[in-house]
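Troubleshooting: if your tokenizer reports a length mismatch, compare your output against this known-good record of 382 residues.
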Amino acid sequence: MKRFIKEDLIKDLSKKMVFLGGPRQVGKTTLAKQILKSFPYKKAKLGLYLNWDFDEDRYRIREKRWDEDHQLIVFDELHKYRRWKNWIKGVYDKFHHQHKFLITGSARMDVYRRGGDSLLGRYHYWRLHPFTLDELPPSMSIQEGFKRLMTVGGFPEPFLDGGESSARRWRRERFDRVLKEDVRDLEYIKMIQDLGLFVDILRRRCGQLIVLSNVAREIQVSPKTAKLWLEVLNRMYICFSVWPYTKRLPRAVQKPPKVYFFDNADIISESDEGPRFENFVATHLLKKIHYLEDSTGLPFELKYIRDKESREVDFIILKGSKIFALIEVKLSDDKISRSLQYYSEKLKPKHSLQIVAHLKQEYKKNNCRVVAPQTALNILFR
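Known-good structure output:
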């Protein structure tokens, strides 16, 4: 199945290296191999795929063993090589007139954004997300896509299979590999078992304010350790943190983050679909924001609003320093939220939307629109 960023990556490969990041098993390898097949080679289709996880490929990578005729070379999971940044810098500087390079990784590879780096100016960075409503197979309806995203999540294997039992088994195996293998390989973390408990707590508190000192007390670790763990989970594309917006709100309060998961089905909520639907919206918004950042270079942020009077709106999208959209999320309540109405009048964003999962009729009132999920995406990111 074709991913919509494929052509963007091929275009950028003509100019610089391309780094492709994203969660484990989100489809990076499949996309990379699709690009190898359809890349506009000058002569014969001479591309090469090397995976750091394979012993033979790892040797070829370290020894730079490839043919001079290979026009496109893919280095998969290269970030697991501890010296990868200096290594790829040297390779690119020596061979960029001869080869094109696509580098993938299941941990964050946007090294420039984390501080000054010698790779500056040598690469474009893209992030691959799970499937969403705007990236469904041609034969799948919006209704079926929504159902699968809410039950088995958007990662390719469980999403395309559709079975809840097999999805649960896949998710358990993925968590085991990420927490016990990937984290161990990339981060110096003790008490891996306690990290699993930490993840389970976050899965049950999707959309809630996460006071790390309280969570640390529950599992008997230090607040500093809990903070480190959350940073690691963000780097590993397990979850992402949404922080409060305070700049233009005199009565805003500094609140802890909310935490959402890249896999919508990671959310544990036995009796209420609300948290999972809020996570569903969060993943759709983040995916679009990341695409706009990666394709245009413009800065976007996803935050939430809450003030001392407990007026809260689930999400706010910032485009640069300007408020682009306010978004409230409801499972079935189609009455416009008072907080959304209040902040819409006060902040005057371009869009004020209340996204309702089970909505009978869309409508607009006082500059606020009540819409279904797909309509919201069309309005915000047309």
